[in-house]
Amino acid sequence: MTPQALMDGLIAGTTIGLGAIGLSLTYSILRFANFTHGDLLAWGAYLTLTVAGALGGLLAGLGAGAPFGPFSFGLTLPLALLGGAALTVLLALALDAALFARLRARGADAIILVMAGFGASMALRALLEFTFTSAPAYFTRELQIARPLGAGMRATPDQLLVLGLTAALALGLHLVVTRTSTGRAMRAVGESPALAAVYGLDVARVVRVTWVIGAGLACVAGVTSGLLVQIRPTMGFDLLLPLFAAAILGGIGSIPGAMIGGLVIGLSESLAVQTLGAEWRAGAAFAVLVLVLVLRPSGLFGQRA
Fold it and tell me: For a Cys staple, 146 with which of 91, 154, 210, 213, CB 3.0–4.6 Å?
């Protein structure tokens, strides 16, 4: 693998890892594969784009839309990301209240939740395409020139920002889960919801917090992906297999594991593109997923049953 392919794999892996963290937490606490997670990622990107457009009009006289420093975007995008994340969280909570919470209350099996999530995923994707059309959109059309980093690697300022932001979010969330009472409650519910309820923990609150974290991270992952490439209604669906592969590779419920899994998937895809061609990108994620399920189903940082 060339140094530049290594850098490209790391950049792609950060977005996958960030999305996989939310997927992993949701799976560990709600106990089902949430197929809507990829679509929350896409909705987060489009909602942020919508808020950015509104803010651009309101702050036009202040020059907030002009590129900030070496980056390709202005100050409106960070502000819009906060609004987009809030709207994505509201969408996720509404989806849970309207669908998943009712199924959980009826004691539905995991397979019922999975199929409901699959149907909701298709509905969200169709609604997204109907609302925003299938034409690709962009946060910015400013061109950036990759800068040399040494050792034959190059990256744009936007790409370096994504790397730093992802590392900060992953570290911050890891500290929240391991060092706070909310994090301890999440881990307790992940071990046994019934036993956690017996000990007086508010399981419903933990579920809401999980949706908030998962949807917020999905929004950030969608924005970073859209910033570096483009925004499309199917972007979340296209990332769904790599997200699941990264979450399973790292170990369900493990935040560092999801990030490392995302980096491994990103590097695998970059290697496949370099050696076999771009059409084999998805095949790399599938191959890693199969190997993990065969060799170590618990993942790198998961606990053996």
Answer: 154
CA distance 177 to 284: 31
Mean model confidence pLDDT for the chain: 88
In whole angstroms, how far apart are CA 298 and each of 164, 249, 287, 294, 305? 29, 8, 17, 10, 8
The pTM score is 0.91
Token code pair at residue 129? 């395409």
172-176, 269-273, 285-289: lowest mean pLDDT where?
285-289
Phi/psi at 165 (5° precision) = -65, -45
* Domains of the chain and any CATH numbers: 3-295 (1.10.3470)
pLDDT band at 105 (very low <50, low <70, confident <90, very high): confident
Identify the bridge partners of residue 231 per DSSP, sorted by sequence position.
137
**DSSP letter for each residue of the chain:** --HHHHHHHHHHHHHHHHHHHHHHHHHHHH-S--TTHHHHHHHHHHHHHHHHHHHHHHTGGGTTTSPPTTSSS-THHHHHHHHHHHHHHHHHHHHIIIIIHHHHHTT--HHHHHHHHHHHHHHHHHHHHHHH-SS-B-S-----PPEEEETTEEE-HHHHHHHHHHHHHHHHHHHHHHHSHHHHHHHHHHH-HHHHHHTT--HHHHHHHHHHHHHHHHHHHHHHHHHHS-B-TTHHHHHHHHHHHHHHHH-TT-HHHHHHHHHHHHHHHHHHHHHT-GGGHHHHHHHHHHHHHHH-TT-SSPPP-
What mean pLDDT is predicted for residues 210-232?
93
Ordered DSSP codes for 225-259: HHHHS-B-TTHHHHHHHHHHHHHHHH-TT-HHHHH
Answer whether 246's CB lies under 8 Å from 262's CB: yes
